[in-house]
Amino acid sequence: MKTLFRIIITSILLVIPCINSSFSQEKIKIGLIVPLSGEYKEIGESILKSVRLAINKIDNSNIEIIPRDTKSNPEHTLNVSKELASQNIKIIMGPVFNQNVIYLNQIKDVTFLSFTNKIDSNPNNVISAGVNAISQLNTLKKFQKDQGIERTIFLIPNTNFRNEIESAIKRTKIKLKDTFVYDVDPTLLTAQIEKLTRYNIRKQNLEDEIKRIENSNEKNKDKKIENLKKRDTLGGINFDSVIIGDFDESLKSVATSLLYTDVSSKRIRYMTLNQWFDRSLLKEKSLQPIYFPSINKDNYEIFKKEYFQTYKSIPNQISFLSYDLVGLIYYLIYKNNFEINNKIFLEKNKFKGKIGIFEISKNKITHQLNFYSVENGNFKKIF
User: Fold this and answer.
1) Residue 193: inside a domain, yes or no?
2) Most-buried pick from 117, 327, 340, 341 (CB within 10 A)?
């Protein structure tokens, strides 16, 4: 028994010997609510496949996953959840989208493990299991401390993720010199970054210095002027690092605007949020190095390979999380002597999954993440 316990706590989904009726005569029923039709059908199907892959790894015939189609609709999500609750199901994985949790507080005796990373304004019975902003900022804090970074500016996009970032800043108490909210519209972005970096002032400083030397009797003034003309600006900036809270092309637009204002990643540290190892960043040599917190890359690659070998298709990112959640639920139920209730997420626990370490307490989940850089065209693990 102790050996089995150690196996479960140290690895998410190893092949666990089938635990038979000596532990539980009844089926362990876990609900799964995902889109299985409509626009987001492929996301839901990928999650369901990953969950089944995880169940096969656990190898316990007493576990039963009962999937239902949410149709990506809040009202339908509520209806199928009520139907699952009527079967005495106490734990449901899902929904996928944050807008579908709004009515779930009507089902008091069920705990939902949502795949979203938004934790603010959730009903009390909904736990966001995604890689949230708090987990990411805690990891960024560690990097700041390790590197002696003192003056970080957090660049926050004015999007629907803004509130999550600002809330996480308060909760984690990450050390910041300042925050700066920017408009993601590219036609407005550059002017905002110019203001932040005092670009026009620094550019004028350069022009003034060139004129001063031209009108002076300084020695080697031609050489000095030649060197100055190789520069874009003159004068310092009042921060040593930035965290860009953005993704995809918008992230690249912000970084490009910083480069335009003569604030390169060679001059200050560029940091960002979880990029899920976006390979397009490997081609952006001018942005490198750039640092970010994320899941365990090695485990992610192993999972994708195993998924492809089984289903001959590529999993989405949420599928990796769903794979881990099966192991997390099984572990907590196991610790609770196979009694399934909504209290198992209240006690303080840690669980080593494929993503990283899950920390569970008071109906909240955070993750201990790894930290990576993109440099020289490669992903590099920092810690």
Assistant:
1) no
2) 327
| 112/92 Cα distance (integer angstroms) | 5
Q: Are 221 and 159 in contact (CB under 8 A)?
A: no
For residue 171, the domain's CATH number is 3.40.50.2300
Contact 293, 139 (CB under 8 A): yes
Domain assignment present for residue 233? The answer is no
Q: Please report, as a single letter, which amino acid is at residue 305.
A: K
Task: List, in order, residues 6 or more apart from 219 with CB less than 8 Å away.
Answer: none
CA–CA gap between residue 289 and residue 302 (Å, rounded): 26
Q: Taking phi first (over 0 means left), then psi (-120 to 50 degrees means alpha), and beta for anything else, what does residue 229 get?
A: alpha
The answer on 153 and 33 residing in a single domain is no
- Contact assessment for residue 128 and residue 365, using Cβ atoms and an 8 Å cutoff: yes
Per residue in 44-102, pLDDT (tens digit) is 999 999 999 999 998 778 899 999 999 999 999 999 999 999 999 999 999 999 999 99
Place of tokens 């201990």: 368
Query: Quick one: which H or E segment has residue 231?
Result: none
Q: Which residue blocks in 148-198 are alpha helix, DSSP H? A: 162-172, 186-196
Look-up of token digits 């002076």: 216
Give me 234's structure tokens.
């003159």
Q: Which residue has the tokens 């310092």?
A: 236
> What is the pTM for the complete model shown?
0.90
